[in-house]
Specification:
Elements (H helix, E strand, L loop, with lengths): L12 E3 L5 H11 L6 E2 L2 E2 L5 E2 L6 E3 L6 H23 L15 E5 L5 E4 L17 E6 L4 E3 L2 E3 L3 E3 L6 E5 L6 E3 L2 E4 L1 E8 L1
Antiparallel strand pairs: 1-12, 2-5, 3-4, 5-6, 6-15, 7-13, 8-12, 8-15, 9-14, 10-11, 10-13
Amino acid sequence: MSEYPLSLLDYFKVYENVIPKDLLSELHKFAKRKEIWTTHQFSNYDNTTFYDKEDCDISYIFVHELELAENLNKVIWDTLKTYTEHIQTFNQYCHYWNGFTGVRLNRYNKDHNMKKHVDHITTMFDGQRRGIPVLSVVGGINDNYKGGEFVFFDNHEVKIPAGSILIFPSVFLYPHTVKFVTKGTRYSFVSWTW
């Protein structure tokens, strides 16, 4: 076992077809509700927030749909275990995490994107959860859109087909963006481990 990966790319992984089709269908149906969405805002370290009219919409209301949330949480948990086993093949120090946040839905309408950023979020970890996120978990809900590519390091595109989950470290080494959607609406979800 090598202690270090060959590159930063070794630390992100897409698991395809891990979300069962019936759960994916429920997620997509839920995501189409108009009343659940609000404008996404970025937060700075001084707790100021800002947004851009081209930025995606978000929803935390999903957590109230308990059966749907429980089923998705199990999929996320199992995928995180698989990811940890993968990372341990070259880094023995990646062996635990305490849990993960409730799922947030993201909606990218035509001409919307998410600016380049890193997932070094502090606001979700200032109550019962202490610390900063360790891993980011992104799930694809649908494929019937164009554009909306998920990109690391300005030029490394990662496909997240519907039913798939991407996991990567939530640190400054992984700047990423979601490019503008050019047709349709892109739905995804995100959660963070600590």
